[in-house]
């Protein structure tokens, strides 16, 4: 595909008109049209602005895009994951997890993952399956994993949660207040300092970050991806050390460190 074809594909993929793109770049829509027809090529300054507008790299605009892979937003069906978690929780008599599962599904029922049609519940269910796959079947940990976003994102209170106080405390640790550019560093430092005092909260938070990293390519802007990478490198080595100091989580710590660091290195090279 030519530069013009790439521009057109990216524009249409974001449901933008030529006029809207032109307004963002400070050019005429005729200029955008001429680029898409390959009559003219945008200069370097405009290429950089186009890449920022479409939230892609400059190379993705100028390189031949013939060999594109078909991507998918999910790997597993969320309803199948729900069945697996529920069946496992019943077999192991995990009462908190059973109550948390139904509550979380209902709380997140109208929500989608960022920039997608993926039901939000896919995220906490994926995390719970991640834990179970690592042979971590602790009732409180699975329950807190399923509920970790309901207070922050669903307007629920800690008293609303149908679980015991131990799980509520884990959810409290995993919930942070909204931030601004001015106070984010201070808020996040306090947040991660508190999590690092609890191995179970540290474990859940690392699995949360693992899952979020795998979806940030389509869920976040380039600026947010940069911020995610920097934040992960700043705070997560400490959480991983906390997990490693717990014998029952030692294998999980190794796997999580490998997953997190591998994904970060892939993103750095691609960006």
Key descriptive features of the protein:
single chain; 2 domains; 271 residues; 15 helices; elongated; Hypothetical protein af1432; 0% strand; mainly alpha
Helix-strand category: mainly alpha
The CATH H-level superfamily of the largest domain is Hypothetical protein af1432
User: Which sequence of SSEs, written as H and E, runs from N to C?
Assistant: HHHHHHHHHHHHHHH
Overall spatial form: elongated
Number of strand elements:
0
CA gyration radius, whole angstroms: 22 Å
CATH classification, class level of the largest domain: Mainly Alpha
CATH architectural grouping of the largest domain? Orthogonal Bundle
Number of domains: 2
Unreliable stretches: none
Which strand-content bin applies to the residues? under 5%
Q: Provide mean pLDDT, rounded.
A: 92
Alpha carbon gap, first and last residue: 21 Å
Percent range of helical residues: 55-70%
Number of helices: 15
Walk me through the structure.
The chain has 15 helices and no strands. The longest helix is centred in the last third of the chain and has 23 residues. The chain is elongated and about 65 Å long. The mean pLDDT is 92.
